[in-house]
Hints:
This protein has helices at residues 2-26, 33-41, 48-59, 66-73, 87-112, 116-124, 129-140, 142-157, 161-166, 178-187, 197-221. It is mainly alpha-helical. The protein has eleven helices and no strands.
Amino acid sequence: xxxxxxxxxxxxxxxxxxxxxxxxxxxxxxxxxxxxxxxxxxxxxxxxxxxxxxxxxxxxxxxxxxxxxxxxxxxxxxxxxxxxxxxxxxxxxxxxxxxxxxxxxxxxxxxxxxxxxxxxxxxxxxxxxxxxxxxxxxxxxxxxxxxxxxxxxxxxxxxxxxxxxxxxxxxxxxxxxxxxxxxxxxxxxxxxxxxxxxxxxxxxxxxxxxxxxxxxxxxxxxxxxxxxx
Length: 229
């Protein structure tokens, strides 16, 4: 549960902030916006298995991974990114990398639906870029943010494949999440001798209730703006 909450909270904050930032930049009229949209979204059209393998073999690898090559270039020693102490954060980074593009497109669709007249009027009144973002963009994206939080909650709660990719043989304690615990309880796994379908079903019910609770709380906090557009 702790790992799942960390993925949902820490990973969610980082993913939403990065997605929002990229969406705002790409809708500001910069050159090559279409190219950058496609490039940032590309990890979403690649198989998650292939994406995880890329990170494990070519980025986090102890002997020839990209990160350790950078560390050695600055005179440091190789770091075990997939060791017990860092494997959770390595998995988190890889998961965020594969998720940012998806939420970025959702935010872009929301921003493009905001009338430009509001920004023009705010600019005439002397509002700077930060004023326009916090007074216009953010309030009018409450519905979009609510949708993204719901989707992210489902992804965090059903987090399974990335755990299995980063600890394929014996599930590391640092990477185990409730869905993996459910799987091991029903089908057997590390340290699980007796299988218990009833306990696995109970885990599934609890996870469903968690998603419903997050959805209800999100709807209460992020109410639709009174400003019609």
